[in-house]
Every structure is written in C-alpha cells, then in structure tokens.
Amino acid sequence: MTVTTTPGGRTRPAPDQARGGLRPRRYDREEVVTAALFVAPALVVLAVFVLYPIVSAARTSLTSWNGYSPTKPFVGLANYVALAHDPALWNSLGVTLLYAAGVSVLGVVSGLAVALLLDAPIRGRGFYRGLYFLPTVTSSVAAAIVWRYLFDPSGYVNGLLERVGVAGPDWLGNRWWALVLLTSLTVWKSLGFNVVLYLTGLQALPTSVFEAAQLDGAGTWQRIRLITVPLLRPITFFVVVQALITTFQSFDLVYVLTGGGPRGGTEVLGMFMYREAFRLGHFGYGTAIAFTTLFLVLGVTLVQWRASGSGRSSLR
C-alpha cells in the first residue's frame, strides 16, 4: 500500500487501484467534525421549523383538541375513522379531484401553447413574455376580488353578455359555474410560471431533430405532436405535479372568490380543513384532514411518477 503526504504533514493511504477500481478513502476525524459543524445550522433549522411542526401536528391529529384548551384529550385514530365516514370529506375530495384535473389539463395545454407562440421569432417577444408572467406575481387575494366583481350577477361580464342578447348565468350562485370560475382563475394565475418552464424546455431541445424531421416532410403539427411533446415529458410531469400540489393546498383563492360555496360546490380540502379547525374549533379533526391531504398528494404524485416512466428524462 502506498501513502501520500497531505499539506499538513500527515500521511494518508493512497487509493488502492487493485481489483480494477478505486477504494473510497477514509475521512479522518477532523474532516468529519468540520463537515458536521457546517451542516449543523441547517439541521437545526430543519428540525425546529420542519420536523418538530410535523411531529407536533401528527400528535394533534390524534387528539380532540379545541384550539384553546390547555389539555389535549387523546383519542387515537378516532379522527381518521370519523373522516372515513364523513360525507363532507367525500364531497370535498370529489370537488378537489375535479378542480385538480381541470387545472392540470388546462395548465399543460395553455402553458405549452403560449410557450410555442412565444418561442417563435416575433416582434416584441420579450414584452409578451413579461405580460404573460404578470398574473403569477399578482396578489391572489386581489385577483380573486377582481374576478368576483367581474362575474357578479350584475357585474361587467353579464353586462357585456346582455349587450349581445345573452342572459348571463349566476356565476357564483351555481356550484358548477363557480367551480369553472375557480379553475379558470387558478389556471390564469399559474400560466406565466408554466410558460417559463416550457420555454426553458423548448430552448434546450436539439434543433437537429427538428431539421431532420422537416427534411423528411413532417409538418408543423406533426413535429409538435411526435417530437416536441414527447421530449417535453419531464417538464409536463413537473407542471402536473405542481398543479396537483397547488390545488390540494388551495385556500386563498377559494376563500375570497367563493368561500367554499355555493352549497359546498367549491369546498376543496383546504377550505374543509379551515372550516373544521378555525370555524368549528375541531383542531384535532382539522389536523387529521391536513394529514389525509398530505397522504393523498403523495399517493397521486407517486402514481403520476410511475405512469410517466418513473421520471425517466427524455431530454438527452
């Protein structure tokens, strides 16, 4: 075995190249202590602000705490058992799944379509890119208030419809129209972010593939369908997962635009949890809803991950 001398004068075994490979060297105690000191602040922050709240919330979900009592009566899995038989949960879950499906599909289609248009050599392309990104940086509460006024029965949209002889519906008084509005608002808010992601992917695609396809006689639609869409599959996967997480955690847009109504038509899981915890004082039950939502998001993400080919990247 050969040895090497470090700048500090210490000797260290050289990597053994026997058996056709390099053996991983052993780190001395000083290096381990130094690395631990650098990592310790991040671990402390992670433990205090992430791990401890998760553990504390998990314990709360096993109690019947009302939010202000000094005692937290332990009830075990009673909250989760009650959730499984609660019709409000199944209504909220159905609404959330419809909401998530609409936001995912429309988010992918609109984001890719706008990205393809903005990737073309047009005048003022930088201006249009900034314009489409404005909804992303707009306050969610402000956007929801504006949409609420626009789609009020006596609002601007119905006024325009009356001018062309069409009777506008009660947008926020009908549960299906309210869900359509909520989905549209969410897609509009996330459009800029999705466009940036797809633009980044489009600019990373190899141009030689498209040139070869064009020489073979492939039209624009064929190149998009057979080349662009498959190559952008990793980005599409990320956009869908991001949409799922956004919809399952959605609260501010729903609270301001519809308040979960009418008749529970837009009461997504976030609103259901808020109602149980902060309006009815069932903090243990509300925390159980939060953990149920977490497990659902993890499950749906895992299914999507497997369905997309276990995350195999097509950008090579």
Structure description:
The chain has 316 residues and is mainly alpha-helical. It has a single domain (78-307), classed as MetI-like (MetI-like fold). Helices cover 67% and strands 2% of the residues. It contains 13 helices and two strands, in the order E-E-H-H-H-H-H-H-H-H-H-H-H-H-H. It has helices at residues 29-60, 78-84, 87-118, 125-137, 140-150, 156-163, 175-204, 207-215, 220-231, 233-248, 252-257, 269-279, 283-307, and strands at residues 3-5, 11-13. It has a two-stranded antiparallel ribbon. Strand 1 and strand 2 form a beta hairpin. Helix 3 packs across helix 7, helix 4 packs across helix 7 (175-204) and helix 12 (269-279) packs antiparallel against helix 13. The longest helix has 32 residues, at 29-60. The protein is globular, with a radius of gyration of 27 Å. The two termini are 41 Å apart. Residues 16-20 have low confidence and may be disordered.
Count of extended strands: 2
Going across the major beta sheet, what is the strand order? 1-2
CATH architecture: Orthogonal Bundle
* Overall spatial form: globular
| Arithmetic mean pLDDT | 86
Distance between the termini: 41 Å
User: Helical content, roughly?
Assistant: 55-70%
Largest sheet: 2 strands, antiparallel
Uncertain runs: 16-20
The value of Rg in angstroms is: 27 Å
CATH superfamily: MetI-like
The CATH class is identified as Mainly Alpha
Q: Quaternary arrangement of the chains shown?
A: single chain
CATH topology: MetI-like fold
Order of helices and strands: EEHHHHHHHHHHHHH
Helix run count: 13
